[in-house]
Structure formats: C-alpha cells, structure tokens
Specification:
Hypothetical Protein Ta1238, Chain: A; mainly alpha; 191 residues; two-stranded antiparallel sheet; 6 helices
C-alpha cells in the first residue's frame, strides 16, 4: 500500500464510499479525534500494567478502529435504496458496550468509594489514562454535534460515553496498582 497519494494536497480527503470533503469536515474531526484517542490508549498499553488491562485495552483499540470506520461512512453510502448495506463494515455492538460495563464493575469492586472529585495525576501512567479520558470526552462531544447534523449509529455515542467512564475507573485502579495517591479536589471556601 502506497503511503502518499497526493489526493489530499488541496485540503480535501475521501470518506468511505468515495465522497470528497474538506479535511476540516465534522465527520473527519470526529474520526480523527477517535484516532488520537486510539494512539493515547496505545501509550497506556505500553506502560507497565497488568496483563488483563493490556488485553482489554487492545480490544478497545480494535473497537476504536471499527468505530472510526463507522464515522467515516456517510449514511448515503452505507445503505442502498434496496435497504441492503452498500459497504460491509463492522459495527460497534451491544457486546462491546457490555464488556466496558463489566470491566468498570469489576474494577470498582476493589476501589475505595469516591467522596470527592479527583485531581488527575499521581503517576505518569495514571496521567496518560486521564488524558485519554479527556480525548474520549472530546470525541464524544464532536460526535454528538455530528449526530445533530447527520445520521450516525447511536451505539457510537453510547460506546464513547462508556469508554470515558472505563478510562476514569482504570485511572483509579492504576493509581492503586502504582502505589500512588488520589488527591481529592476540595474547593476553597469563598471568603
């Protein structure tokens, strides 16, 4: 596969199905942010973390590629007039969301109860996880805006919402795993 095609030199790119759009198009922004998130999750996976979390993060990275392909496919290219799928792409499923929920519940069993908001940080691995969580929230906001303008599969928003929750809980777990300390945010009282 050739890396450079020169077709994007004028500031346009192709969606799945061939539709040409400007590189600042909201659909490009949505799946580009998902790609950024995927790279940050790779950074977390590259840290010294337990094998189970590494395996789950690898599954998430694969799901994010699927989700990105869903975002890169405009609705008019996805379904033929006959109702059949034009492009046979994988889809994020209920099982994908259920896995995230199962992992959140599993990790929460061993975590102390939250009584305050938590300041991100304490260990570089934890910080990487919080950065990924923030990028996931941005991807969710952009995709929500896209869903106001175009038809997207609603499971995309559910998955991104649950993934940000997963990343938050994973950050808490990694705090304990790395013997770091959670610092609660306690706002100063107004004078």
């Amino acid at each position: 596969m050739k890396i450079y095609t020169k077709t994007g030199d004028t500031g346009k790119t192709s969606l799945f199905g061939g539709t040409r759009v400007p590189k600042y198009h909201l659909r490009i922004e949505a799946y580009g942010t998902v790609d950024e998130l995927n790279s940050h999750i790779g950074l977390i996976r590259d840290q010294k973390i337990d094998a189970h979390s590494t395996e789950i993060l690898l599954k998430i990275q694969n799901e994010l590629f699927t989700l990105g392909s869903m975002l890169a496919t405009p609705p008019e290219k996805e379904i033929l007039k006959s109702g059949k799928e034009r492009l046979n792409i994988n889809k994020v499923s209920e099982e994908s969301v259920a896995l995230l929920e199962q992992e959140i519940d599993f990790m929460n069993e061993s975590l102390p109860e939250m009584t305050h908001f938590i300041l991100p940080g304490g260990h570089s691995t934890v910080s990487f996880c919080h950065i990924a969580r923030c990028i996931c929230r941005r991807a969710e906001r952009i995709t929500t805006q896209l869903s106001d303008e175009s038809t997207i599969n609603p499971k995309i928003l559910v998955y991104l919402n649950r993934l940000s929750d997963y990343l938050f809980v994973l950050a808490r777990k990694l705090t304990i795993d790395n013997q770091a300390q959670e610092i609660p945010w306690i706002p100063e009282k107004l004078k």
